[in-house]
Amino acid sequence: MSKQSSRTSLALSAIVTLALIASGACAHAAVRTSDLWWMPEVASKGGKDIDQLTYFIYYLTGGVFVLTQVVYVYFLIKYRSRKGIRATYSHGNNRLELVWTAIPTAIFIGLWGYSNHLWWDVLHAPSPPDTMEVGVLAYQFGFSFQYPGADGNLGQSDVKLIGNNNPFGNDPNDTATKDNFQSGILELPINKPVRVRLNSRDVIHAFYVPQFRVYQDIVPGRTIDWLWFTPTQLGSYQLACNQLCGSGHYNMKAQIEVVSQEDFDKWYKEKSAAAITAAGSTPARSK
To answer: Would the CA dihedral through 168, 170, 172, 178 be positive or negative?
Structure first.
């Protein structure tokens, strides 16, 4: 390869690397306004366990990178071309081949087993009995949320029933759905488990909250109701779609407010009462 070709290849590699870094930074900036160069603060119960696994992988790969580069430079210097010394042919060493194949294999199998166990325990294991359920509807290009009424039960739903007049696909024959109410903000009480019932009205979207270490694709024609988490810090967060879902994807987000149980109860009581009043006034207007 000529020097000119080598320089061209290096330039192209640098451009691609910079483009990937820039695109990654932009993707994070879309949902975060601080700690853009590292992981955001942990604001959920299982987030610390996920971070521990992430840090372990970071340190492991970083250590392997440094070790291999040191060995690489050492061999470049030790076996560099010198006058009077001829290169010798080596067929290899089967024992060394076995060792450096077995070690990475064991590491990858271990990481797979532990991460699969963590994935189940943190996000997909059965939720506690006192878990609050919230319906989440994703559409081009926004989110809407549905809370159960005074009975605390969202009731039955079916993706086949989703439409303009029934955005969450509530079963009209289920009385538990009659007092449900909607919200444009995902209001959550601190330290209380929350299970989300995810539905999409059109294309594939995603439920992505970096601070909660939560990510789940939302697939049209399918209800996903196994994802749950427990917020542990008061504050405002942002729910974002992490799937390229159309021209308005860049602005598809929703506000999340984690508040005290007292503040949530007050908000919930007001919303629930307003929903009951609205439902009771509908028949009167139709007469």
So the answer is: negative
